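Sample intake sheet
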Amino acid sequence: MKIGCPKEIKPQEFRVGITPNATLEAVNRGHTVLIETGAGVGAGFEDSDYEATGATILGSAKDVFAQAEMIVKVKEPQAVERKMLREGQVLFAYLHLAPDPAQTKDLMESGATCIAYETVTDRTGGLPLLAPMSEVAGRLAPQVGAWTLQKANGGRGVLMGGVPGVRPANVAIIGGGVVGTAAARVAVGMGANVTVLDQSLSRMSYLDDVFMGRLTTQYSDAGALADLLPRMDMVIGAVLIPGAAAPRLVTRADLAQMQPGAVLVDVAIDQGGCFETSRATTHHDPIYEVDGIMHYCVANMPGAVARTSTIALGNATMPFMLALADKGWKKACAEDTHLLAGLNIHAGQLTYAAVGKALGLDFISPVDALK
């Protein structure tokens, strides 16, 4: 199979969809790997690194899309890239379709087969291709929140760990999954006073055991949030409903209960955000203020640490990419129900229920797409 990897063009996105190591594995299996020139530079990989593993370097994304049978990316294809997709081509990338009707429409019209990293599952019910980036975003969240808390950036001027005689920052993390756990680890390490809210009693028990009393767990409901928000210096939104739009858990009216200069970090922004006042921002212009509350809502947080993120993502996606290349998408998905769960669009039809329900569109079962 001809596997293509264009350079990412989303603002301040420095990751790359295929690493040189993944290229070598694909080439050793008899596949052709086409890399757009400069695609890996942001993650520290030169064209020569890819050429050394057998890749072919092409001069433009147009060339890559024209020649490749499968396109492997990191972020969802931008409008200009969606126009280059064609019928029968396979797209393997993060898509986050639920809050993005324009992208969904374009991908359906392209006729391509689109497999989303974020909905591929595993035997334990986890999301193995989302998990590494969730881990990165979670670890970054307290760091970027601490930066936003600085007075010069509009925040309250509170130090995460405090100093002797001065209390540390109060941090609430909504969601105790991969993102929330990673965020808690860093926030606790920075010395903050951390509360994690979740609705899974078993998950809260797990967090209580792992952190050995260094944080507080609390059942997540409207009453708990109403009690916590006035006392929080930072709130990290870490909720996820696989493939679906994130629930809005903090309303604009709730902001009036918070202290001026408090910070909201919305890690769920890729799925539409879990705060009513969230809107996607970029690394170039990451924060904004609403009703005195600072918001950090960068939609590709892991792109800030592109090398770490690229290698972590490449390790996770490589086996699935190779299966798709070795067997073709239909056989690979038929033999692996977890990969089939990643099928979001095929031949003009939506194949993921949560996206269809979020956007009010008709959908079919991914199993039906195999017929």
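Comment: The longest strand covers residues 193-198. The first helix runs from residue 20 to 28.
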